[in-house]
Amino acid sequence: xxxxxxxxxxxxxxxxxxxxxxxxxxxxxxxxxxxxxxxxxxxxxxxxxxxxxxxxxxxxxxxxxxxxxxxxx
Length: 73
Hints:
Blueprint: H1 3-20, H2 25-32, H3 36-43, H4 51-61, H5 65-68
Helix pairs in contact: 2-3, 2-4
């Protein structure tokens, strides 16, 4: 799997989890202290995320990093 494919899969996972919590991108971005445009880039796979960014997203979604990564690549 290449980097872009991985970023796309992470973005899809974030969107799925966010939608399962009935949250908008704006709400999630606000909880993470991000701009909505940054959240959009993350969800669309157009930017790389670091571990701390994923931690902030998971915290806002009230899930563990382990739960976040419970998906097939």
